[in-house]
Design a protein that fits this description.
Elements (H helix, E strand, L loop, with lengths): L2 H17 L35 E5 L2 E5 L6 E3 L4 H7 L6 E3 L24 E3 L8 H6 L4 E3 L7 H7 L5 E2 L12 H11 L3 H21 L8 E5 L5 E3 L4 H8 L8 H5 L4 E3 L12 E6 L4 H7 L2 H4 L2 H4 L3 E5 L3 H8 L4 H16 L14
Parallel strand pairs: 3-6, 4-5, 6-7, 8-11, 11-12
Antiparallel strand pairs: 1-2, 8-9, 9-10
Helix pairs in contact: 5-6, 6-13, 12-13
């Protein structure tokens, strides 16, 4: 995916939060990867869900009751497919965000497809879900948990299937991966299995924190050089990843960003970047880094002088996994980012923060 495409995606996400408009700009072809008739239906590793239905889930636009076990699941939420797959179901369709993956299923989740065909891929160009194409798939459940769905879009989709929209307690695109997984687990009649999955990943965070006590009390921020300097707020899953490892976020972060998942900051607020660690999601780990360091104001910060930066290539599998922040992608990220973070906070300027091997 090109940098321009990535930039338009981020711009679309920001617009959705500010204007309560459509979901983020998707990438890739508008053609689906496979016909709906060949897409895998739910239940590749289905456990009994007897007694789980009917189930009612609250969300931003009220509540939705699911009367029976869904067989044809469409994910409108940009990362919801990973939780569905982790629970042993294969959606008939997903909504593309990152691009480059058949069925919008990343390498960290491929084995969860089993023998099922990859889901049909839908596209959101910034005007909202493709309602007609979704209707043609005859879904019996539409998941929009990690989304910026508007009320009108919710009402349109609800005409032909139950819709689970984003939780009202969080910003658009701000639901924690734990709640995302558990909400989807309830919808699929697998609440216990979802809690077990969440506990397993939380155990991985706990192990990483125990092995790296320097993370506790250290400060960190995640940013990207999008149209200047864009920092992610405390409700963004990328920032929560750092918090879950024990890092503290800049105290004025949300005051500057407001009720958004992130925002561009002026050079006058580069103090937000002078933390114990800066994690940068960049177009590449060479020229983009050089450009950052050519900014005299940024280069004069201690975080730069002391070599406490972590760089992640945004279009790599690693970068995509960081952006998704799901129950399946997070273990993939932990394996790669924890060593980088450990090198950045060890207090030794000479310690180089290496790029992961893959």
């Amino acid at each position: 995916m090109t940098r321009a495409t990535r930039a338009s995606r981020l711009s679309g996400l920001l617009a959705s939060v500010l204007l309560l408009a459509a979901a983020a700009v998707g990438c890739g072809s508008s053609d689906s990867d496979s016909d709906s008739s060949s897409s895998g239906a739910s239940g590749t590793d289905s456990k009994s869900v007897a007694g789980a239905y009917p189930v009612t889930l609250d969300h931003k636009f009220g509540s939705t009751t699911i009367k029976s076990e869904p067989k044809r699941i469409v994910t409108v939420g940009l990362t919801d497919q990973d939780a569905v797959l982790a629970l042993g179901n294969v959606p008939v369709a997903t909504t593309e965000w990152l691009g480059g993956y058949k069925g919008a299923v990343g390498p960290w989740a491929q084995d969860k497809l089993g023998g099922a065909a990859a889901p049909t891929v839908l596209k959101d160009t910034g005007t909202g879900p493709q309602v007609e194409k979704i209707a043609a798939l005859k879904p019996d459940l539409i998941l929009a948990v990690y989304s910026g769905l508007t009320k009108s879009q919710y009402e349109s989709l609800s005409k032909f299937a139950p819709v689970v929209a984003q939780p009202k307690a969080y910003n658009n695109y701000g639901v924690p991966w734990q709640q995302q997984t558990e909400e989807i687990g309830k919808a699929l009649g697998k609440e216990t299995e979802a809690k077990t999955l969440v506990s397993g990943v939380e155990d991985k965070f706990a192990a990483a924190k125990k092995a790296n006590p320097a993370f506790a009390g250290a400060s960190a921020v995640m940013a990207t050089p999008y149209e200047g300097t864009f920092v992610f707020g405390s409700q963004d899953p990328r920032s929560r990843f750092l918090s879950d490892l024990g890092f503290s976020l800049p105290k004025d972060l949300d005051k500057v960003i407001g009720d958004q998942f992130g925002a561009n900051i002026s050079k006058e607020r580069f103090d937000l970047l002078d933390q114990d660690v800066d994690v940068w999601i960049v177009p590449d780990t060479t020229t983009a880094v050089t450009k950052l360091h050519n900014d005299k104001i940024y280069a004069d910060l201690n975080v730069v002088k002391q070599g406490r930066e972590v760089f992640v290539k945004e279009t790599s599998d690693y970068g995509n996994a960081v952006s998704l922040s799901t129950v399946l992608s997070i273990p993939y990220v932990l394996d790669r980012m924890v060593p980088q973070l450990a090198a950045a906070v060890d207090g030794k300027t000479a310690t180089k923060v290496e790029q992961p091997a893959s």
